[in-house]
Amino acid sequence: MSYLxxxxxxxxxxxxxxxxxxxxYTMVYGVLRLINFAHGDxxxxxxxxxxxxxxxxxHDAGQQTLxxxxxxxxxxxxxxxxxxxxxxxxxxxxxxxxxxLAALITAIGVSLLIENLANIEWHWGGYRWFGSTPxxxxxxKGSATSIVFFQQHLGINIVWKDIFLLAxxxxxxxxxxxxxxxxxxxxxxxxxxQNYDASRLMGINIDAIISFTFILGSAIxxxxxxxxCLKNPQATPTMGILxxxxxxxxxxxxxxxxxxxxxxxxxxxxxxxxxxxxxxxxRYENAIAFVILIGILLVKPEGIFGKxxxxxx
Length: 313
What we know:
Layout: H1 2-32, H2 39-58, E1 63-64, H3 66-92, H4 100-119, E2 122-124, E3 127-129, E4 135-136, E5 139-140, E6 146-149, E7 156-159, H5 160-182, H6 184-194, H7 196-201, H8 206-231, E8 234-235, H9 239-254, H10 259-278, H11 285-299
Parallel strand pairs: 1-5
Antiparallel strand pairs: 2-3, 4-8, 6-7
């Protein structure tokens, strides 16, 4: 029983990471009907931004305080928000009236561009920036220590970094829910996702709402990048490829375009991967996500929380 509960905590931590990245995919698709394949690379930039902020604050000491980690997340959010805005403004907006295939090819091109730029090793100020060599991410002091719950009966050990990850994810999801449900921008996002043309006729600035959606999704991806590096303390230019694909799978599982579905899909994927790994199938851990994707597309292609919408001909 103790082992099962321990694995459940691990699964929730992994699922939260997938959920944070999947939210960006699902929000952009819900508003623009576009799969932003560059989103995983925005996640990667967020990880690097957090790593470099920690390096500057700690002078390469290898550990950072909780306050410094939170400041690093804030810096990553700002950097990724700007990048998300730039991607939408200069890559996707000129193709707004083009075919979906053109937008899809552009999304893949932007992803490859960011990855290849990050693979170039830059030297400035006596430091190495980016490059193929992994960049270390300073751990939070004491984050590797564990706290024991129900010691007399179960003895569940949970490391502080997982508690921090779960708490931060809960806060981010709460903020996102508040923005979408109770702010003018959030209501405009929901209106655009339901009917693009009617929203424009009602006076909603479509360009501003789409830009805001990219900024919001990129900011959440930045948080995910920093939290991922707390569990795996290094950043690489290719880290966003597999994680981004898995998060996309999570969005499809929940019902792409559905925010609650994206969060649920991330948790389902995290639970499934952890279950497979704990049963001795760790080498199949990456493949299971795509097996689930195929199953969902065959059985319920609109996703668990999605609704089948008849297409007008």
